Amino acid sequence: MTPRRLAFAARDGLRLSALEWPGANGRAPVLMLPGICRTALDAGAIAARLDGRRRVVALDYAGHGESARAEDARRYRPEALIRDVMDAMAALHLHGVALIGTSFGGLVAMAIGAMRPASLAAVALNDIGPRIEHVGREKVVDFIGRDHAFASSEEALTWFRANHPPMPLMDEAGWRDFVARTYAEGPDGRWHPRWDIRIGQHAVGAAAGAPPDLWPFFGGLGRLPLMLVWGEASTLLSADTVEEMRRARPDMEVVTVPGTGHAPTLAEPNVAAALDAFLEAVP
């Protein structure tokens, strides 16, 4: 099913974009929030598996994908991006959603759970929790904040495979698709990130400020069906944090992806099966 591209304005007038795959009425829609250096394109595989059984919407945050770039990089601070998501949910009539949040998208899910709990029906967190390991955060900032301006897609692929966290379950075709969703050819004929590289410092790095205590936000998800996907080799989400999350939410389903770093693609066979079953149980 081919998605349609949606465009709408943030409250400050910045143009934002999303992809929508139509689905059956009467069931909770799926809202997919990508990682901080990912875009709505990552939702395609899940939308294909759902095959119209639910409406699926995936957002491009400000400065990502088809959304506009901000003049002032402070526009990419976490609180502004979270506000954009809540405004998008209102503009696109996304109520009582099953939210799938990868990395930063999972942090947004926790924030929405605290501020607008009635807007959520279920949450799946992908390789993120209420404690973010510092070394992992530094690596993310470094990765996001560079534009290598690759001379070709092959050069981008070679660099990406060598520098991305381990993905042992991804085959050659998977890597090529992953890279195509990460970089785009620019007017100069070179391949650039599908995000504004200033996002690194302002959404995740030092300019974003010290992260708040996220455990109360995680606790705000207490009434909801909850799943955690964990890349066992993740540098952002440690085994100790996963265990603390389990103690806080014994009913939380945890799907582990051995040998995989930050963040699983959600197309891994064990993850896809568990996530599909999780969503099927949401009315």
Automatic annotation (TrEMBL):
Transmembrane segments: none
UniProt KW keywords: Hydrolase
Molecular-function GO term, any one: hydrolase activity
Superkingdom, natural source: Bacteria
Keyword Hydrolase tagged: yes
One of the record's GO cellular component terms: membrane
All copies of domain AB hydrolase-1, residue ranges: 29-264
Record-linked InterPro entries: AB_hydrolase_1 (IPR000073), AB_hydrolase_fold (IPR029058), AB_hydrolase_sf (IPR050266)
Keyword Hydrolase applies: yes
Pfam families per UniProt: Abhydrolase_1
Protein name in UniProt: Alpha/beta hydrolase
Source organism (scientific name): Neoroseomonas soli
